[in-house]
């Protein structure tokens, strides 16, 4: 069904733009930032569920810029995780080689815009957080509830999803409804002479 809809959408867009002669090649990039919180006392780093709060501050700044006629060099959007923020250029880059000179500058401005809203014990990463799904990986603390949650996950609580929009929770529920079962990604166990056979882990 999804493939059929994708093909129909492609054909519809093609029919609308196939006769265009004035198209200019435009492009851009997006960077997903992960907010983390350092607990120096216990030497622990956790993802920080403050993306909605920070996004509202960034969007408020953008609104002020629009009201005074100032161009926004960066656009912000939520991501699936309540610890993530997506940043893109304020407008697409053009076809000239000179556009490439603007990419790094814009990336720096994006990072600086988020960093100035962070607390003293917080930082942002431009990579996936390696400890997702482990015990006590978020701040505030969250707990898995496979029986009563949308995702039915034994690793990833619903509370870690972005809460500012019901879209992501609804997406999880929709996937579960279509599949009839939760999505499972099982990594094979590397077995050596110390590995029990069968290898069983109780969650």
UniProtKB/TrEMBL annotation:
InterPro entries: GCS, Gln_synth/guanido_kin_cat_dom. The keyword ATP-binding applies. It comes from the Eukaryota. It comes from Panagrolaimus davidi. Its EC number is 6.3.2.2. SUPFAM superfamilies: Glutamine synthetase/guanido kinase. Belongs to the glutamate--cysteine ligase type 3 family. Pathway: Sulfur metabolism; glutathione biosynthesis; glutathione from L-cysteine and L-glutamate: step 1/2. The keyword Phosphoprotein does not apply. One of its GO terms (molecular function) is ATP binding. It is an enzyme of class 6 (ligase). Keywords: ATP-binding, Glutathione biosynthesis, Ligase, Nucleotide-binding. GO terms for cellular component: glutamate-cysteine ligase complex. PANTHER family: GLUTAMATE CYSTEINE LIGASE, GLUTAMATE--CYSTEINE LIGASE CATALYTIC SUBUNIT. GO terms for biological process: glutathione biosynthetic process. It catalyses: L-cysteine + L-glutamate + ATP = gamma-L-glutamyl-L-cysteine + ADP + phosphate + H(+). This is Glutamate--cysteine ligase.
């Amino acid at each position: 069904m999804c493939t059929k809809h994708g093909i129909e959408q492609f054909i519809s867009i093609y029919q609308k733009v196939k006769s265009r002669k004035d198209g200019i090649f435009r492009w851009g990039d997006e960077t997903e930032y992960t907010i983390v919180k350092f607990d120096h006392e216990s030497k622990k780093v956790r993802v920080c569920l403050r993306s909605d709060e920070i996004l509202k501050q960034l969007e408020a700044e953008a609104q002020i810029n629009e009201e005074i006629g100032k161009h926004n060099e960066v656009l912000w959007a939520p991501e699936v995780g309540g610890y993530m923020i997506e940043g893109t250029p304020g407008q697409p880059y053009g076809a000239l080689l000179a556009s490439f000179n603007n990419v790094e500058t814009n990336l720096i401005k994006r990072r600086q815009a988020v960093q100035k809203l962070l607390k003293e014990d917080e930082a942002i990463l431009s990579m996936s957080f390696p400890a997702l799904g482990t015990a006590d990986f978020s701040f505030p603390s969250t707990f898995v509830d496979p029986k009563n949650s949308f995702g039915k996950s034994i690793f990833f609580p619903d509370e870690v999803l972005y809460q500012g929009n019901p879209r992501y929770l609804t997406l999880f529920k929709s996937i579960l409804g279509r599949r009839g079962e939760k999505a499972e990604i099982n990594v094979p166990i590397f077995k050596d002479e110390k590995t029990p056979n069968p290898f069983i882990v109780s969650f």
